[in-house]
Specification:
Blueprint lengths: L6 E4 L8 H13 L5 E7 H7 L3 H15 L6 E7 L13 E5 L10 H11 L4 E3 L8 E3 L1 H29 L5 E5 L9 H13 L6 E3 L16 H22 L6 E4 L6 H13 L4 E4 L1 H15 L1 H16 L1 H5 L16 H5 L3 H8 L10 H9 L1 H7 L1 H9 L1 H21 L1
Parallel strand pairs: 1-2, 1-10, 2-3, 3-4, 4-7, 7-8, 8-9, 9-10
Antiparallel strand pairs: 5-6
Helix pairs in contact: 1-3, 1-17, 4-5, 5-6, 6-7, 7-8, 8-17, 9-10, 9-13, 9-17, 10-14, 15-16
């Protein structure tokens, strides 16, 4: 079986132009003593929006690895796929993020629920898990409620996994189970029963992406109770370690943090937790590269700055259309957005400082940043004009991408 390394870093790339720049950040991290493996990821939604195919992401990853002489492992993730979308990813991907959030909260059949209750009734009472300073209080109602929330979803994950296994062969890919895009966070107790269901389905999950407490909005900092997040994150790690032994799940099972880019407030707690528990981590940072790409174009001036301003103007004009698909992971105060006419008057420095995620800069505007984040569809519609601008300004863009990943993300989380 492919064994996923301890620390992995999701480096999604909307427009498949920054593979080398992203890999440079991990090469720099390696020189600092941190062995982190890249996982290039791109969702079906992004492929549809940009009119690309999963094979293009594989080509980008392979080219970056060859160009920079990377000798370690690397992966290409079929991100947030289901049975309806997975087949397009089979040739290119060796990492599959099984997204079953749409099935959460829907009832499994009575026979499945009964079997689940029977398999987990041994946990009824006070369950002591090493590392958690209080026993988990578990009743039959606890297990029944967990089944009602997650059992059907994990059964769906089993169907997707078995479909991929049939096509790719057993052990030839890495599996992640994603239940992060749900309304409510999962408690450590619920995590235990999610992992029980994963094991029952025979899914050799090496990472699991829960819904954590707080808001994980796209491309901006964490919003929530950092102290509570740290407590729950540590408890989740303890539950994972317990579940590996209890259910026979892969020994390297680890947490995956989706929408993990730019969550600066919780990077310290995550860093402390993975070191304390000697635990692995998968951190997804897809959107931050797209934003650094736009920052790079703005900094280049000329046509690059014109395009950056045009992306904002059209995103502002199409606010409802572009924000609707991301409503669960953005919070934009429209009255705090500059009007496009104001942005048109900015120079490259002002645009970059408003967009770049440096919270100490008084010009930084998290509403502006979130709107540009969901505005990648506008850039896609520019077609060759946008790609040509990226190619013409590659040196400037490629300075921003690795610096952002190394200084604002990797050093804070892994070093």
């Amino acid at each position: 079986m492919k064994i996923l390394e301890k620390y992995t870093f999701g480096v999604g790339d909307r427009f498949t132009r920054q593979g080398k720049a992203q890999l440079e950040a991990l090469i720099a991290a390696k020189k600092l003593g941190a062995d982190i493996i890249p996982v290039w990821n791109k969702s079906n939604r992004e492929h549809v929006t940009i009119h690309t195919h999963p094979d293009s992401l594989r080509a980008e990853a392979d080219a970056a690895v060859a160009a920079l002489g990377w000798k370690d492992s690397y992966y290409v993730d079929a991100d947030h796929i289901g049975l309806k979308t997975v087949d397009n990813f089979l040739a290119a991907s060796d990492f599959y993020t099984l997204d079953v959030a749409d099935f959460s909260g829907k009832p499994a059949d009575e026979k499945s629920v009964k079997a689940f209750m029977e398999a987990n009734k041994k946990f009824v009472g006070k369950l002591t898990i090493p590392g958690i300073d209080h026993p988990l209080e578990i009743t039959e109602k606890t297990i029944l409620e967990a089944a009602g929330k997650f059992l059907l979803a994990i059964e769906e994950a089993g169907k997707i996994y078995r479909h991929v296994e049939e096509k790719k062969g057993k052990g030839n890919f890495v599996t992640e189970v994603s239940i992060d895009e749900t309304d409510l966070p999962q408690s450590p107790t619920e995590m235990l029963f999610i992992l029980s269901a994963i094991a029952k389905e025979g899914i050799p999950a090496q990472t699991v992406a829960p819904k954590f407490t707080g808001r994980f909005n796209k491309g901006v900092d964490y919003v929530g109770d950092v102290v509570q997040f740290e407590k729950e994150f540590n408890e989740d790690l303890c539950v994972l370690a317990f579940a590996v032994k209890e259910f026979g799940l892969p020994a390297n099972l680890k947490l995956s943090v989706h929408s993990g880019s730019d969550k600066f407030s919780i990077y310290g707690p995550i860093n402390r937790a993975i070191k304390k528990h000697n635990a692995g981590l998968h951190l997804k940072t897809a959107g931050t590269t797209w934003l650094e790409e736009i920052i790079g174009l703005a900094c280049a001036g000329g046509e690059g700055l014109v395009i950056a301003k045009e992306v904002y103007r059209k995103a502002y004009e199409r606010f409802d259309e572009l924000c609707a698909p991301y409503a669960a992971v953005i919070d934009i105060k429209k009255d705090a957005l500059p009007v496009p006419a104001e942005v048109d008057a900015w120079d490259e420095k002002r645009y970059a400082q408003t967009l770049r995620h440096v919270q100490s800069n008084p010009l930084y505007n998290l509403n502006f940043r979130q709107l540009v984040h969901v505005g990648y569809k506008v850039a896609a519609e520019l077609g060759e004009r946008y790609y040509r601008a990226l190619d013409d300004n590659e040196k400037v863009v490629a300075q921003n991408v690795p610096e952002n990943l190394l200084e604002r993300h990797i050093k804070r989380v892994f070093i």
